[in-house]
Amino acid sequence: MREIVTAALQMGSIQKADSRAAVVARMIALLEQAHEAGATFAVFPELTLTTFFPRWYMEAQSEVDQWFEREMPGRDTAVLFQRARDLNMAISLGYAELTPDGQHFNTSILTNRQGEIVGKYRKIHLPGHSEFDTERAFQHLEKRYFLPGDLGFGVWRNLGGIMGMLICNDRRWPEAYRMLGLQGVEMVTLGFNTPSVNSQQGDEGPQDRLFHHRLSCQSGAYQNSTWVVAVAKAGVEDDHPMIGGSLIIDPNGKIVAETQTEADEMIIHACDLDACNFGKSTIFDFKRHRRIEHYGLITERTGAVPPE
Ligand code: CDV
Q1: Which atom of ligand 1 is nearest to the CA of 194?
Q2: Which residues of the chain have pLDDT under 70?
Q3: d(CA 80, CA 28)
Q4: pLDDT at 198
Q5: Residue 200: predicted pLDDT
Q6: Which residues face 237 on adjacent strands?
Q7: Does 305 fall in a domain?
Q8: From ligand 1's centre to the CA of 255, what distance in Å?
Q9: Assigned domain for 307 exists
Q10: How does strand 41-43 pair with strand 3-10?
Q11: What is the pLDDT of residue 202?
Q12: Is residue 217 flagged as an active site residue?
């Protein structure tokens, strides 16, 4: 058995006016709760430190940049890293990254139990649009504020296993999981901010949103025989509701823990990485069963082209 006692630390809403320090204090409270319950690894959501700012249209770059971190850990987050170190816990955390040369990414990092950053992923599938859209009930401007990730889909050896990261919309793309699966991933962590309604389709409400979320995460886990830990930032942010439904999913695709609220909430599970072995050596033994000679279109073509 190779068990990692893993906590998914769902964050409730963060309002525009909330300070980073206040958010980090909430994160530390959850981290301590996870530690008391026996966790050695804790996963936080996408863009954990602020409100989900891509719903707001901004023109001045200085206004945009206030939502970004220039260093990690930085002034407000150093205390979180220190607490994780004190508790001997590894963490994964999403945030908006502003690089020294002025590039903006939607980023997630992974630390070891000594609080050292061992992995970084920059979100590749950016949903939404880049200009103000009058047709939408609310905006989703990730394409305006972020560049597509430039680091590819990586995995890292950590806590005795092989870990990879995705971010939110990536979970809807089987290629993203498969890129990690092809590197032997045993645990995928992913944070998300998913509005409870579709801004372009009024009748798609929270139940459908949760269904598609579970479907995407459970199939990614099953088809790659990996644990998936999906963590929400949930609740109502400045009048905009977002789903909860943080999940821990086993390599059979079964949900073993799920949050019940849209507030700050911990779920925990002892994830045995050896549970990945059966699927990886049988039905999803890629080396024996994949037929890459027929998969060319996946990298040659972006959009669907129907026959004449
Ligand atoms: N933060 C996200 O990537 N949210 C998208 C929404 C826009 C659908 C998601 O896939 O959940």
Answers
A1: 11
A2: none
A3: 6
A4: 87
A5: 85
A6: 240
A7: no
A8: 21
A9: no
A10: parallel
A11: 73
A12: no
Kind and range of the H or E element at 166?
Answer: strand 161-167
Q: Please tell me the predicted confidence (pLDDT) of residue 127.
A: 98
Residue whose structure tokens are 């032997």: 184
Overall domain count for the chain: 1
Residue with tokens 């959009």: 303
> CATH number for the domain including 190?
3.60.110.10
User: Which among 52, 126, 165, 168 is the best mutation to test ligand 1's pocket, defined by most ligand atoms within 8 Å of the CB?
Assistant: 168
57 within domain boundaries: yes
Return the closest-CA partner of residue 146 out of 84, 203, 102: 102
Q: Are 154 and 200 in contact (CB under 8 A)?
A: no
Count Cα atoms within 13 angstroms, Cβ side, for 21.
1
pLDDT at 201: 78
Tokens of 69: 């971190």
Structure tokens at 43: 């996963």
- Check residue 38 and give its pLDDT: 98
* Nearest-atom index, ligand 1, CA of 140: 7
Alpha helix (H) residue ranges in 192-283: 206-224, 277-281
Residue 180: the pLDDT is: 98
| Å from CA of 7 to ligand 1 middle | 22
306 in a domain, yes or no? no
pLDDT of residue 23: 98
Locate 135 and state its tokens: 């047709």
Tell me, what amino acid is at 206?
P
Task: Say which of 69, 97, 142, 168 is annotated catalytic.
Answer: 168
Residue 266 is part of which domain span?
3-300
